[in-house]
Write a structure and sequence with these properties.
Number of strands: 28
Number of helices: 34
Distance between the termini: 72 Å
Bound molecules: adenosine-5'-triphosphate
Radius of gyration: 36 Å
Helix content: 40-55%
């Protein structure tokens, strides 16, 4: 059948035999599709992608923007102001040339603009996060042109043959060709949390429901255990998940804690301003002994209401968080959930895996121990060329059959593939297993050859809980085969004649040894003595204390194929073969990162499945622990109560031989002690710990899809250093957000007080119109605030302890700063206002007596320029800083000042904004008063420096 006549949507793949399904899709289980087939099918079926929907329509997202209390207040102000203008227009009170409804139109324009901006930001943020998530979209192992390769999931087509293993998210719907112990969690599709056991050899009735189609796997579900070979039957929107579009995973766009606090702040500001308005109106009425000035009071109230709303703040916060995620991705830290950007700044403890994160995950076997001999192995990387040395002498492997037996086991009990890529030897699969295939190759034992001589017919896959794996191979045919096993090992060969199957087991030496009753010595095997066991354990400790990862290997002849899942009863009475020790060197850059995190008050902790001595050697090398520090093992942890654990968590920096479930307990223990925990993980079973941690971190390269899905952040380079860099970025973002909140809200408080003062001091008229206030809040405050958002980190950002994640945004003096600076701001403006009011009353030819209002408006704006420059540092005086280190602030100050001057001196703008022309002397006075703001903040810094108080 040609590709063009493929069944479009055969709903009953589960009722077909595997061969029938393979024929229907015109493919082959051993060689897969050819490149031409794939091209044709890609054309026909398109990419294997789901079109995501987020559940809310565009209209709903847009409407949601207007549910904000501050925007609602602005709408109310616009309507009242429009009503007042209408009355004035009717009464013919408008001045010649004055545009009616100017304030209403401007406020409504701002409201709509804010809504649209919010909408664009929200959808953009969703798209950006979705795009980031795609960067970690799963790779799939596929068989094409008889070769195993890794491709992006979206390149899959019906007819592809893919391989699944534990931790993978299934990328398309498919029919099982073969499977071993396959357990799949299908909750994404069926809602059922329990994993389902799948079987390739079933043929099910057509009417079988989705949840019971045990010979099929479905896109979006997760392999919890085991492995399988699968024929892809449907891709993209044709899959079961694709068909139920409403159930597609949407990109979560939770408001960050900061955004939530900003909403609360909005409520406080609105309530506060309403109270103030009430005071001013009541005070004004009492002062005037009647309602004579009610209209003026109403205008003052409107201005105050506009002044109190920090219109520019939400946009600046969103931009800052977005810029933060971009900077982090440049450092290889990919943020999957926006709140993580803020939380990172508060991290106090980083719990890191060892393998791959602290070390390079490039394993090279250094020693092999069998039959009481320790052989050193030479050679580099995954190049299968090297020598075996005994007592510094190169030996001929054939003279030592125990090495061959051990290495045969390590090559057969192995899923890695060693291959040459662009002239370099590389592995596909787990580096630990890659090192074993490589060392076997050095002894002339080629995994591929032995895979066909000893075909695998069953297995108990590796699992970090059991810390071992076993394969069961058929050996009957080999006995008569051309390359007899006898050549490799006469002892193994002798079993072949009597028993048809061999099981090879490898795993953590202690656990594997505990399951052995005999030991393979030379050409023979004998029951274990206690002394032999003690010797092996001593050698294991010796290798581990050199920082080597050590594996133990064993085998056992078998009469029958064991049942699936029966590892507990099958992996017993094993025959011990020996130990293999491999080096996984620490990443050279990690030592400095560990020190940097310590200086920043962040404690690094190593959590590893490896042996305690291996863990300790590497932890000491990296500075994570010191000689004599306690190492807590998974076993000890298991016996501890939560209370005991809580006593220890602040003291222990190395956890060894732990299982994923222990990781969860460690995070919980640390959190009970009030720590803010970042935790790394890569396996399926790490997902609960990643979810529990304040920042769950998955590995981009080696991590399973399941762990990535559970994480807040993904390390694209699997490197510990990246976590430290991300915490630094988190601190910078948080500090900058606090900085511009101080800046914007300080100004708002100053504006409101100044406006409120005018009627209370008996000055006729409102100093600032709503339009002018909007101008200030959005332009003259907004631009410098955006520039402050990209302020580079202060030198001490990683030399101070982290901020508490539970602290309020107003903690550490931020709230009092806003009030204090707001009052100073208001005092300066009010003094200027009083002076200007009296000064402008003196009639001068060509000058408007109302121009005192423009003087107040100008000095409020210009004072904010000084504020922006001074607030760049909390502790350093401006003259101590490099003015060019944030060119944006300099640029924003210059541009904003020019714009402000244009409002006074360019005729059409002056008319529109209702300002008045100011003579140069009066402008200079405004600048003079404004400069006082800058002077005040600098004096404050000096004061805090001398009194030893630190403001952050
Ligand atoms: P870390 O937590 O530092 O990253 P790890 O995740 O590599 O360490 P595991 O992969 O859980 O730890 O391995 C735990 C132990 O299981 C190892 O120390 C080793 O003894 C054994 N082991 C690891 N990989 C295999 C494997 N492929 N086959 C058999 N045993 C293995």
């Amino acid at each position: 059948m040609s590709a063009n006549s493929l069944p479009e949507d055969t709903a009953s793949w589960h009722s077909l035999e595997v061969n029938k399904a393979l024929n229907l899709l015109d493919t082959n289980a051993d060689s897969g599709l050819t490149t031409e087939n794939v091209q044709e099918r890609l054309q026909k079926y398109g990419d294997n992608e789901l079109k995501e929907s987020n559940g809310r329509s565009s209209w709903e997202i847009l409407l949601d923007q207007f549910k904000n209390i501050m925007l609602l207040m602005l709408i109310a102000v616009a309507l009242i102001s429009g009503f007042l203008d209408f009355m004035a227009w009717q009464a013919g009170e408008l001045k010649p040339g004055e545009v009616p409804f100017k304030d209403t139109i401007a406020i409504m324009a701002i409201v709509i603009l804010n809504g649209i901006l919010g909408y664009v930001q929200e959808t953009r943020a969703e798209q950006a996060l979705a795009a980031l998530k795609k960067m970690t979209s799963p790779l799939v192992r596929v068989l094409r042109n008889s070769k195993l390769m890794e491709i992006a999931a979206k390149e899959l087509v019906p007819g592809d043959v893919i391989l699944l293993e534990a931790g993978m998210q299934i990328a398309a719907d498919g029919r099982l060709i073969e499977q071993s112990n396959l357990q799949v969690r299908e909750s994404a599709l069926t809602g059922e949390a329990e994993a389902v056991s799948k079987q390739a050899n079933l043929i099910l009735p057509e009417e079988t429901s989705l949840g019971d189609r045990l010979n099929l796997v479905f896109q979006g579900t997760e392999v919890v255990q085991g492995r399988a070979k699968v024929l892809v039957t449907n891709t993209g929107m044709q899959t079961e998940l694709g068909k139920i579009a409403t159930m597609l995973q949407s990109v979560e766009n939770e408001p960050t804690p900061l955004q939530q606090r900003m909403t609360q702040l909005g409520n406080v500001l609105v309530t506060g301003s309403l109270v103030l308005v009430a005071i001013v109106v009541v005070g004004g009425i009492i002062q005037a002994r009647g309602f004579g000035n009610f209209r003026e009071l109403l205008e003052v109230s409107l201005s105050m209401a506009v002044a109190v709303v920090p219109e520019g703040l939400p946009a600046v916060i969103t931009v800052t968080l977005a810029l933060g995620t971009q900077r982090m991705v440049r450092h290889n830290a990919l943020i999957r959930k926006l709140p993580a950007v803020e939380t990172l700044g508060s991290v106090t403890t980083i719990c890191s895996d060892k393998t791959g994160t602290l070390t390079q995950n490039k394993m090279v076997v250094q020693s092999v121990c069998a039959n009481n001999h320790v052989f050193r192995v030479t050679g580099e990387g995954y190049n299968p060329i090297g020598d075996f040395l005994l007592d510094s002498q190169t030996i001929d492997v054939e003279d030592y059959p125990e090495i061959s037996a051990l290495l045969l086991a390590s090559a057969v009990c192995n899923d890695a593939v060693l291959q040459k890529e662009k002239g370099e030897w590389a592995i596909l699969g787990d580096p630990t297993e890659g090192a074993l295939v490589t060392v076997a190759g050095k002894a002339g034992i080629e995994k591929d050859q032995w895979n066909s001589k000893l075909p695998r017919i069953a297995e108990f896959p590796f699992d970090s809980e059991r810390k071992r794996m076993s394969v069961i191979c058929q050996v009957e045919e080999v006995a008569t085969g051309e390359a007899s096993l006898r050549a490799v090992d006469p002892v193994i060969a002798s079993f072949i004649q009597s028993q048809p199957y061999l099981m090879f087991t490898k795993g953590s030496p202690e656990l594997t040894l505990a399951r052995c009753t005999q030991i393979h010595l030379g050409n023979n095997f004998v029951p274990f003595t206690d002394e032999q066991r003690a010797q092996i354990l001593a050698e294991n400790d010796r290798m581990a204390s050199l920082g080597l990862r050590v594996l133990g290997l064993a085998y056992k002849p078998m009469l029958e194929i064991p049942e699936e899942g029966s590892h507990e009863i099958s992996e017993v009475n094993l025959i011990w073969l020996g130990l293999i020790g491999m080096l996984d060197a620490p990443r050279p850059e990690v030592k400095a990162a560990v020190e940097e995190s310590r200086n920043a008050g962040i404690r690094p902790i190593m959590i590893t499945g490896d042996h305690q001595l291996t863990a300790r050697a590497i932890a000491i090398d990296l500075g994570i622990a010191q000689e004599g520090d306690r190492v807590l093992t998974g076993q000890e942890l298991q016996q501890m109560s939560d209370q005991d654990l809580d006593q220890q968590v602040d003291l222990v920096s190395i956890y060894a031989r732990v299982s994923p479930e222990h990781k969860l307990r460690i995070v919980q223990g640390l959190q009970r002690r009030g720590r803010c925990v970042a935790m790394t993980g890569d396996g399926v079973n790490d997902a609960p710990a990643l979810k529990q941690a304040d920042i769950g971190i998955a590995m981009g390269i080696t991590g399973t899809d399941v762990s990535k899905e559970a994480s807040d952040m993904v390390l694209l380079d699997d490197n510990f250093t990246t976590i430290v860099a991300a915490t630094k970025e988190g601190r910078v973002v948080y500090t900058n957000i606090r900085r511009f909140i101080k800046y914007i809200l300080g100004s708002n408080v100053g504006e409101v007080l100044t406006i409120a003062a005018a009627p209370l001091l008996g000055l006729g008229g409102v100093p600032l119109t709503p339009l002018q206030i909007l101008w200030m809040n959005l332009v003259t405050d907004g631009l410098p605030a955006l520039a402050l958002a990209v302020e580079p980190p202060e030198a001490d950002v990683m030399k101070r302890p982290p901020f508490s994640p539970h602290e309020s945004i107003f903690a550490r003096g931020l709230g009092s700063y806003i009030i204090r600076i707001g009052i100073i701001f208001a005092i300066i403006s009010i003094i200027l206002m009083l002076w200007a009011y009296n000064h402008c009353k003196i009639p001068v030819e060509g000058l408007d007596p109302e121009r005192w209002k423009t003087m107040v408006f100008t000095s409020l704006c210009v004072a904010q320029m000084g504020h922006a420059i001074a607030i760049r540092s909390n502790n350093k005086l401006t003259i101590e800083m490099n003015p060019f280190s944030n060119m944006f602030v300099l640029g924003a100050v210059v541009v904003t000042t020019i714009l402000q001057l244009m409002l006074i001196y360019v005729e059409p703008l002056r008319a529109f904004f209702g300002t008045h022309w100011l003579p140069p002397t009066e402008l200079a006075i405004c600048f003079g008063f404004s400069a006082l703001m800058f002077v005040w903040i600098e004096l404050e810094k000096l004061f805090f420096r001398f009194t030893g108080r630190r403001t952050v």
